[in-house]
Design a protein that fits this description.
Layout lengths: L5 E4 L17 H14 L3 E4 L1 E2 L5 E2 L2 H14 L4 E4 L9 H4 L9 E5 L3 E4 L2 E3 L3 H13 L3 E6 L2 H12 L8 E6 L9 H8 L7 E6 L4 H11 L2 E4 L6 E3 L2 E2 L3 H14 L7 H8 L7
Parallel strand pairs: 1-2, 1-12, 2-5, 6-9, 9-10, 10-11, 11-12
Antiparallel strand pairs: 3-4, 7-8, 13-14
Helix pairs in contact: 1-2, 1-8, 7-8
């Protein structure tokens, strides 16, 4: 079984310091949290960014400042900016961080009802546009799916040339409006992707570590971090993103799965080696 790639979703766009005081807002806080995850064993930093007051933004300049600062502290880590943005943003607003030519970025493969009146809209044309831009910019997409139908959408568009094979997937599970986080749900998604794919599992809330264990056992990869869950265990707030990553490392050790370095993660994902 190939080595385990751990992704740290360092902050997300919704969770706040009211949920956990360690959630990063400032540049220094982002560096602190990314470094804690990297040193614990994460190879990828999945990045949303905030202004110092905690307001989420897709501003390219803010992404650049934070990405540069993280790279200085963690020189070989893979930084994977989010193109999710916020409800109401235009496609080009959401795509701003891809103008910085990261190695990877997320590609959301369908529309989601997040609760109340919040609809995270990703039309077929939006997905095509994002996929084409990533191909033009040499960026490998992590195809985020919140339900089985989004796998079908991505595969259909891949046949038309909007996403390149082999595909790397991210199963985001347990989100309101999406697929659940039970074993049956994991089995359904993992059995629905083509041979040659790689996948990461992001369990939200209480599903984070049970699904991490499933991914470790079945040859997938794992995402953990404050975006998805702020607790180390029931009722116990994690002191850092690094604590969440370290728990995954302990699980992997129990199951005999080695942890991938950033260089090994690049090889597994088909990314170019880091230029020295």
């Amino acid at each position: 079984m190939e080595k385990l790639i751990i992704t740290n979703c360092v902050s997300g766009a919704e969770v706040t310091k009211e949920n956990n005081p360690a959630v990063p807002y400032t540049v220094d806080e982002y560096v602190r949290e990314a470094k804690s995850a990297y040193e614990a064993g994460a190879s990828i930093i999945h990045l949303h960014v905030r202004y110092d007051d905690g307001k989420p933004t897709q501003d390219k300049d803010r992404f650049k400042v934070i990405m540069d600062a993280i790279r200085k502290a963690c020189p070989d880590v893979i930084i994977q900016p989010s193109t999710g943005g916020a409800v109401g943003m235009t496609n080009d607003e959401r795509l701003q961080p891809t103008e910085l030519n990261p190695e990877m970025a997320t590609l959301d493969c369908g529309t989601m009802n997040f609760g109340g009146d919040d609809v995270f809209e990703n039309t077929e044309n939006t997905i095509k546009y994002f996929g084409q831009k990533m191909i033009e910019r040499g960026i490998k997409p992590e195809c985020e799916v919140f339900d089985k139908s989004m796998i079908e959408m991505c595969l259909r568009l891949a046949k038309k040339g909007y996403v390149k094979y082999p595909i790397h997937w991210d199963f985001v599970m347990g989100v309101n409006g999406g697929i659940g986080g039970e074993i049956r749900d994991f089995t359904f998604l993992a059995g629905s992707i083509p041979a040659g794919s790689t996948y990461t599992v992001a369990g939200v809330g209480r599903y984070e570590f049970p699904l991490a264990a499933m991914a470790i056992i079945h040859g997938g990869h794992v995402r953990v971090g404050f975006e998805d869950n702020v607790y180390l265990s029931k009722g116990v707030l994690a002191k850092s993103n690094g604590e969440l990553v370290a728990k995954v490392v302990r699980l992997a050790n129990e199951f005999g799965r080695e942890i991938a370095t950033p260089a090994e993660a690049r090889q597994i994902l088909g990314l170019a080696p880091l230029k020295k």
